[in-house]
Design a protein that fits this description.
heterodimer, A: alpha/beta, five-stranded mixed beta sheet, 18% strand, globular, B: alpha/beta, five-stranded parallel beta sheet, two-stranded antiparallel ribbon, 12 helices, 7 strands, EC 1.2.4.4 (chain B), oxidoreductase (chain B), DH_E1 (chain B)
Chain lengths: 346, 434
């Protein structure tokens, strides 16, 4: 981290932290530009871009037509010109029309032009469920993009990380998908949908420097040190896992991956070799999810240290349901059962 | 019987014959005699030329006619005559002839097994050459795969193009791209994608960036008529119209998308220039085999773009005289008589006739120029082949396979790179090195 200890800090939720990152990047670099559906005058449906148009003007922060293909294609052209665009896709569920521009264009431009043209854009997009969003406002499509060579995938789990990772992503010269877990925009959701929810005001990572700092891409965070097992997770699941581990009194080591590509394999290996057990938790559907890649990597690298089969806890292979979303969501019960199973013979 | 199968009391009587599905079919197939009388060719000079400041809605008819300058006798007539100097006309003719000579040579190189793939622009030379000469050299081009004429008109070295086609040691793209998918940033030529029309919204983004920065440069994009069906085309038109982006959209209507005739992109119902009307974009339909019409239309569109009048969509009505690529055999799906029967003639022959009519050129000079250009291309080819022809593992260091996926190579690529090097060493192949 490149943060100065003397820097002033303030309480922020994740939206405010993201807004602060955008504000700082726009102030520092006149080539940073923000665009997307409803991001301009209104400031975004989640308010992440609030106030930016008033501050930086309509040619640097503006609304777009409702065509994700166009938004990403235009951002690639802007990047080729020399700008550093930060397009917003309003919900990750809407990103599919832009798939060709992301996969065949943004991710491949540096390679196919031998570095003549690059695509230094950061695509921000709220993802994940737990907000009664139904199947078109709840999906976690990160596994589709981690499969694509040439694109980075970043997922913050706290306001502090959201700001530092977003600044690092914007300054990165490769295309970055920045998926924001919208269920924890306002607080570190512990998975208990039927209990009062907390906000970020009491969480240590809700204390955020007001100035410039970066959290490097490709570095995981050890959220909780422990000896009994390793839990690999990211986004909302970091907080659900933390709550379950506290409840069960298990001495788990919880790793927040923060970046899926490039992955912090060293942190994973070191932890699993120490604990001998590995549980992987994500909200996305199970089959061919990023958990499958994590499971394969741990098996390949830590097999002789494993004392139990790797456990995967995920969403189900169904569309994200509306009324039954808490039955789909990998909440404390599902995680708790998996935890008991993997610790059975310990 | 379930409830939904019961006839509704208020349902209208169903006494109509069954529906029929219309599947377009081109007029001529292999073996058919060709007669293009159905194609309307308005006289040269008939189309009016609106002021470049006129709103797009004032001239919808220009999206349905053909802007033509060169008449049947080779004279330049009408309001669209760009009144070019003989020197400029000769340069245009030379560039077009050079493009054709280059295409011939590279097509043959592919047939000789020196590369994997090639695409000619035969019959469409005016589309890229005249446009490049009408644009400023620093305007940014977002081409499709058949606008190599842009590079030729901008003086990009033929050796560099050939190096790319051969994926050889001199290839600036390090053998990473299919032949002819050039990238030439310093010549205002964007990296070509094999995916269709993805460059359209990208061109709009470049143009929007130029406008946002108060720059003076504009962007131009090209796609075929077939790929106007892609969603990217329509996204680009919407974006360009909304922000009045300084961009020129060129639709090269060469009648054929591999084996699918233009009817499968909607040509039976309307023109491609008419796509502009729904977006409120200026639309022009131009005789694409008339280099002066292409030049004049491009200049007009560029002036609109440079004066913040926004985008223009130009349909270049032309004909793909040869196969889609070296992998295509057009005799399998269209009549061999089509190229010669094409009512708008050959673009090089027409410009040559114009210069002869002006008394600025003659057949002997033309033949001499053709010989000179063929010799020039041959010499450039010899030069390029000193850097090698296509061959697996011959020209690029093996470990370069992993360069450029990201700016910095992450651990997983580094691991795979080491695996590949070990695999090559184990293979015992003579070219395994590093």
């Amino acid at each position: 981290m490149t943060m100065n200890e003397d820097e002033p800090t303030t309480r922020m939720n994740m939206i405010q932290a993201i807004n602060s990152a955008l504000d700082i990047c726009m102030a520092r670099d006149p080539d940073v530009l923000v665009m997307g559906e409803d991001v301009g005058y209104f400031g975004g449906v989640f308010r992440a871009t609030a106030g930016l148009q008033a501050k930086y003007g309509k040619t640097r922060v503006f609304d777009t037509p409702i065509t994700e293909t166009g938004i990403i294609g235009v951002a690639i052209g802007m990047g080729a010109y020399g700008l550093r665009p930060v397009p917003e896709i309003q919900f990750a569920d809407y990103i599919y029309p832009a798939l060709d521009q992301l996969v065949s264009e943004a991710a491949r431009l540096r390679y196919r032009s031998a570095g003549e043209f690059i695509s230094p854009m950061t695509v921000r997009s709220p993802f994940g469920g737990g907000i009664f969003g139904g199947q078109t406002h709840s999906q976690s499509p990160e596994g589709i993009f981690t499969h694509v060579s040439g694109i980075k995938t970043v997922i913050p789990a706290t306001p502090y990380d959201a700001k530092g990772l977003l600044i690092a992503a914007i300054e990165d010269n490769d295309p970055v998908l920045f998926f924001e877990p919208k269920r924890i925009y306002n607080g570190p959701f512990n998975g208990y949908w039927d209990r009062p929810s907390e906000n970020w005001s009491k969480h240590p990572a809700g204390e955020v420097p007001t100035g410039y700092y970066k959290v490097p891409l490709g570095k995981a965070a050890v959220v909780r040190e422990g000896e009994a097992l390793t839990i690999l997770c990211y986004g909302t699941m970091v907080h659900v896992c933390t709550a379950v581990v506290a409840e069960q009194g298990v001495d788990a080591e919880i790793i927040d991956l923060r970046t899926l590509v490039p992955l912090d394999i060293e942190a994973i290996e070191e932890s699993v070799k120490k604990t001998g057990r590995c549980m992987i938790v994500h909200e996305a559907t199970r089959t061919s999810g990023f958990g499958a890649e994590l499971s394969a990597l741990v098996q390949e690298r830590c097999f002789y240290h494993l004392e139990a089969p790797i456990e995967r806890v995920t969403g189900y292979d169904t569309p994200y349901p509306h009324s039954l979303e808490w039955a789909y969501f990998p909440g404390p019960v599902r995680i708790g059962q998996a935890l008991k199973k993997i610790m059975k013979d310990a | 019987m379930v409830a939904s199968e019961l006839p509704r009391a208020d349902a209208p009587p169903r006494n109509l014959p069954g529906l029929t599905l219309h599947v377009p079919e081109p007029k001529f197939r292999p073996g058919d005699a060709v007669d293009f009388v159905g194609i309307e060719v308005p006289p040269a000079g008939a189309a009016r030329r609106p002021d470049t400041a006129a709103p797009a809605k004032d001239f919808p008819e220009l999206a349905y006619t053909l802007v033509r300058v060169l008449d049947e006798e080779g004279r330049a007539v009408g309001a669209w005559d760009p009144k070019l100097s003989p020197d400029t006309l000769r340069r245009m003719l030379r560039n077009m002839a050079l493009l054709r000579a280059f295409d011939e040579r590279m097509f043959r190189a592919q047939r000789q097994g020196k590369t994997s793939f090639y695409m000619k622009a035969t019959g469409e030379e005016a589309v890229a050459i005249a446009a490049a000469q009408a644009l400023a050299d620093d305007d940014m081009c977002f081409p499709s795969y058949r606008q190599q004429g842009l590079l030729i008109a901008r003086g990009y070295p033929l050796v560099e193009m050939m190096n790319q086609i051969y994926s050889n040691r001199g290839d600036k793209l390090q053998g990473k791209q299919l032949p002819i998918m050039y990238s030439a940033r310093d010549h205002g030529f964007f990296s070509i994608s094999g995916n269709l029309t993805t460059q359209y919204p990208q061109a709009v983004g470049w143009a929007m960036a130029s406008a946002a920065k108060g720059d003076t440069r504009i962007a131009a994009a090209w796609c075929g008529e077939g790929s106007t069906a892609e969603g990217d085309f329509h996204s680009a038109c919407t974006f360009a119209a909304v922000y009045r982006a300084p961009v020129i959209f060129n639709v090269v209507n060469n009648q054929w998308a591999i084996s699918s005739f233009s009817g499968f992109a909607g040509a039976e119902a309307t023109t491609f220039a008419a796509r502009a009307i729904g977006y409120g974009i200026a639309g022009l339909r131009v005789d694409g085999n008339d280099a002066l019409a292409v030049y004049a239309a491009t200049l007009w569109a560029a002036e609109r773009a440079r004066t913040n009048q926004g985008p223009t969509l130009i349909e270049h009505f032309t004909y793909r005289a040869e196969g889609h690529s070296t992998s295509d055999d057009p005799t399998q799906y269209r009549s061999a008589g089509e190229p010669n029967a094409w009512p708008l003639g050959d673009p090089i022959a027409r410009l040559k006739q114009h210069l002869i009519t002006l008394g600025e050129w003659d057949e002997a000079r033309h033949a001499a120029q053709d010989r000179e250009l063929a010799e020039y291309v041959r010499a450039e080819q010899k030069e390029a082949e000193k850097n090698g022809i296509l061959g697996h593992g011959l020209h690029q260091p093996l470990d370069s396979l992993f360069d450029g996926v990201f700016e910095e190579m992450p651990w997983h690529l580094r691991e795979q790179q080491q695996q590949m090097i070990a695999e090559e060493e184990a293979s015992g192949r003579p070219w395994a090195r590093k």
